[in-house]
Specification:
Blueprint (H helix, E strand, L loop, with lengths): L1 H34 L1 E7 L1 E16 L3 E4 L5 E6 L6 E2 L4 E5 L2 H35 L6 H34 L1 E3 L4 E3 L9 E2 L7 E4 L3 E9 H10 L10 E6 L7 E8 L9 E9 L10 E18 L4 E3 L2 E7 L5 E12 L2 E6 L6 E5 L10 E5 L5 H30 L2
Parallel strand pairs: 1-21
Antiparallel strand pairs: 1-20, 2-11, 2-15, 3-10, 4-6, 4-9, 5-8, 6-7, 8-10, 11-14, 12-13, 12-15, 13-14, 15-19, 16-17, 17-18, 18-19
Main location: membrane
Family: Belongs to the membrane fusion protein (MFP) (TC 8.A.1) family.
GO cellular component, one term: plasma membrane
């Protein structure tokens, strides 16, 4: 009997000890889910943003000249350095002008002779008119001498015109730059014969500013018209450009031409932007990426690219609510601005979203949020500088638009 009691006490003690040991473990398991998965979260960036439409085009020179000689002859000298910048009026080629000088001398002498004949004819006419009162000379003689004066005067005029042309030809032997710009190579070198109006000596392109032609599809054009009433929906928008080897759109220009009709075959409208080129960094023919300012939002929403998830064909983010649970939120994406992405719909100012650890949580699950910044100070400073450039160039674009409107 006593043995049975002792065994019962031992068993009861073991059961109690087991219960005590298992209770903390069960409590730990029950509390674990409530702690949530640790994730990095950040508040969305709310600031003024400008949407952009991107196009491609090529740079063209506003003026381009294929230089031809105005007189025929042999090239005496090429006076320019190939590829250099030349100013209007600079001498580029010298054509042997000896024949033109000789022609000027010949016509000068011929003009002197014609003037002498005119003087003599006038004197003869004066004498005949003096004898008319005494009837010593007939009317026929008077008419003949008056005609001689007119003929001599015509010869003087004809010779003067020929002399002027000869002097022009002598001047044309000095081939000058008709415009300022960058000159190409010399196609004709010293000692070669050139024909007036045919031989292309070289080419010059004006490069102080350059044009960029691009085509806007009709849907985009109509959107501009809807957002900005009036025919100047594109004229007063700034244009940013980057070249093939550049990442940033650091070249700023403005629209200075919009075609008067849409191309029915392509459904596009030809537009031209102009860019200053004081440093001569741009060349005609370069391929260019262009951004035309579109819709402006005073309270735009931007988030980090890594915070965006893909669900089939949808883009989404995970929003952390007040209960520290994540909620699925579909979003519409806008332009990329640096390392951030504009959100057109789905988020609002003040929202907090998961930026790192997107794959570790599911909608409705609790999380342990670790607050971080959506963008570093350098990125935000860059955004501010970019927006300042946009605002500044908007003013310049409006000035250009006013100039265009004044020519219509």
């Amino acid at each position: 009997m006593h043995t049975f009691i002792r065994v019962s006490i031992v068993i009861f003690g073991l059961i109690a000890l087991s219960a005590c040991n298992s209770e903390p473990s069960q409590q730990s398991q029950a509390q674990a889910p409530s702690q949530g998965v640790p994730v990095d979260v950040a508040s969305v960036v709310a600031r003024p943003v400008t949407q952009w439409d991107t196009f491609t085009g090529r740079l063209e020179a506003p003026e381009s000249v294929a230089l031809r000689p105005r007189v025929s002859g042999y090239i005496d000298m090429v006076t320019f350095e190939e590829g250099q910048y030349v100013n209007r009026g600079d001498t580029l080629f010298l054509i042997d002008n000896r024949q033109f000088k000789a022609e000027v001398d010949r016509l000068t002498a011929q003009l002197d002779e014609a003037k002498s004949r005119l003087k003599l004819a006038k004197q003869d006419l004066t004498r005949a008119e003096g004898l008319r009162n005494s009837q010593s000379v007939s009317q026929e003689v008077l008419d003949t001498r008056a005609a001689s004066v007119n003929q001599a005067r015509a010869v003087v005029a004809q010779t003067t015109a020929a002399l002027d042309q000869a002097r022009l030809n002598r001047g044309f032997a000095r081939v000058e730059a008709p415009i300022s710009g960058r000159i190409s190579r010399a196609n004709i070198t010293q000692g070669n014969f050139v024909t007036a109006g045919q031989s292309i000596l070289t080419t010059i392109v004006a490069t102080d500013r350059l044009y960029a032609y691009f085509d806007i599809d009709e849907t985009t054009w109509l959107n501009y018209q809807q957002n900005d009433s009036g025919a100047r929906a594109v004229d007063d928008k700034p244009v940013a450009m980057r070249l093939a080897n550049e990442d940033a759109f650091d070249h700023w220009g403005s629209i200075n031409f919009v075609d008067n009709q849409v191309n029915a075959g392509t459904g596009t409208l030809r537009v031209r932007a102009v860019f200053e080129n004081e440093q001569q960094q741009l060349l005609p023919g370069l391929f260019a990426h262009l951004k035309l300012a579109g819709e402006h939002q005073e309270k735009g929403i931007l988030i980090a690219e890594k915070a965006i998830g893909t669900d089939l064909n949808n883009k989404y983010v995970l929003v952390v609510d007040s209960d520290k649970k994540v909620q699925y939120r579909a979003v519409s994406l806008g332009d990329k601005v640096g390392s951030l992405r504009i959100i057109e719909s789905g988020l609002q100012a003040g929202d907090t979203i998961v930026v790192d650890g997107l794959q570790r949580v599911r909608p409705g699950a609790p999380v342990t949020p670790n607050k971080v910044e959506m963008a570093n100070p350098e990125t935000l400073e860059s955004l501010n500088a970019w927006q300042q450039q946009v605002d500044q160039n908007k003013d310049l674009a409006r000035v250009s638009a006013d100039q265009i409107a004044g020519t219509r």
